[in-house]
Amino acid sequence: MQYLVARMQLRPCTGLQEAVMQVLLQLLPLVLSAAAAILIAWRATPPVVKARLAALQSGIARARKPIMLVTDFATAHHLLVRGSSAGSFSNRPPSMAPSAVLSGRRYHNINSAPYGQLWRALRSNLTSGVLHPTRLRHYAAARRRALHRLAADLREQQLADDGVEALAAESIRSAVFGLVSTMCFGDGGVDAAVVRAMADVQTELVLSLSAVRTFAFVPFLAVSKLVYRGRWNKLAAIRRKQEELYLPLIDGCRRRRGRDDDDSDGTPPSYVRTLLDLRVPVELDGDHDSSGGEQTQQRRLEDGELVGLCSEFLGSGTESVSAALQWIMANLIKRPDMQDAVRREIDAAVDADAEEVGEEVLGKLDLLNAVILEALRLHPTIKFGFREVMQEDQVVHDGHRIPVGTKMVFPLEALARDKTAWDEPDEFMPERFHGCCAGGESTKKLLSVAAEMKMLPFGGGRRMCPAIGVSLLHIGYFMANLVREFEWREAEGGEHAGVQLHPDATVEMFNFMERPLRARLVPLRRPGGGYVKSQVGRDEALDCQTGH
Ligand code: HEM
């Protein structure tokens, strides 16, 4: 032994070295048999357990990776839109989507799905099956009904109790929620009480997003569930309520599926119906798109996935659009000259006796669209975009490769207030978009403004929001008609009366207004059409409070 070591090292061993070698030799059989046992056990381990262990390992690795905040617009745009030189740079860090978190990332929606075949199938189903302009046309009647309910609701609040504050934001949100739930579950099938219950659960979910964050990025979910048992139970209860409400409606769509043909009788194609018809690829390999080739094995979506996808559709479809509408009306209250100008533009384009501002007119309203774009620039309703650098991406910034696993955060509001891109970036100045939006081109225009590197309210690149067209349609349609129906004014009296354009820092993800918006609404038109005699009938003022 002494000889051997001495020969290898070409010098004699000390007593200590020899003792260490003796111990190692004693342990060697033990180490070898342990290694053999681990190898045998690993071979016998079911693939699902192996995948869990790999996910755990990558979770731990991810948790240790750096976070980069991108605050300069040109860099943000370059990274999001051009991506990387090799991969797609289209993955998000493990998402905060509640359905994904609560299911231990078994159920994904579009937002949470890793970039790959499942994500592609889900996203393309949404864009072609529901959000395509030819499909959106089917919902015109539902939009009209939602608008009429909203206008009637605002008027009723005036009649019900003069002087009592009315929650206009609540009215806006329920109108948008009602419309989106019709798109989700189909026309006429959903009871009004169920719609209200679903809207309430959605509110609970939004207010619990900070609790979701507690569990979103932890490597040891089981331990965190024990430590934060209260929070976990609350989230699980919300999810149970969603299941109780959505699953009977999903089953109803399933039963009707055999009977209806959406396209033949003009019935709107519900989102759930498209999901029931959808086949998604079986994920063969881990987290992301590693197959690179054709997937042949396909499966239907499970009930748990359907619940998560409905929750995503209802949440994204409602919160962003109704928040945008509230920011717009609040800004128009602060700029009465702009509000009048928008109204004059509408009046010039729409017959005085017309019951409503029709959707076909929206594209011609340059100033109206300029107001929408400016409000989305100043108050993008989603606060952040997120990406994660994957192994296959080669994201280079300033000549340096950004390490794999880096989480990149894009603060959308700060980016759109970049002083190098905009004059007076903190001011509400729709004039800056004046002349850009006539001819029904606002969607395209928004994208080209983004291409000029100035704003990203819908994010950018392959994971950009897939619903820009429907969002601009819903916002434009409701806004045009709300401006035509009422004069929106600052509420009087009390220190909490005035409009404050501050965001609510306590809400995660969505950009809501901090203080419920109070407004005096002066009805300008008779229900069913025609202007009231005095458009400035101050007696008809309605104190209105909006909140979320
Ligand atoms: C004012 C309205 C809206 C705004 C400002 C908005 C904004 C955004 C933003 C910033 C993102 C992240 C993009 C990125 O990471 O690059 C996003 C993603 C998404 N939005 Fe919207 N959104 C709006 C309305 C909607 C509506 C109405 C729906 C559905 C009906 C929707 C569905 C989605 C989905 C599914 C994603 C995930 C896309 C993916 O990962 O591929 N959004 N949205």
TrEMBL record:
One of its GO terms (molecular function) is iron ion binding. Heme binds at C465. It comes from the Eukaryota. It is a single-pass membrane protein. The chain crosses the membrane at residues 20-42. Its cofactor is heme. GO terms for cellular component: membrane. It is found in: Membrane. Keywords: Heme, Iron, Membrane, Metal-binding, Monooxygenase, Oxidoreductase, Transmembrane, Transmembrane helix. Belongs to the cytochrome P450 family. This is Cytochrome P450 superfamily protein. The lineage of its organism: Eukaryota, Viridiplantae, Streptophyta, Embryophyta, Tracheophyta.
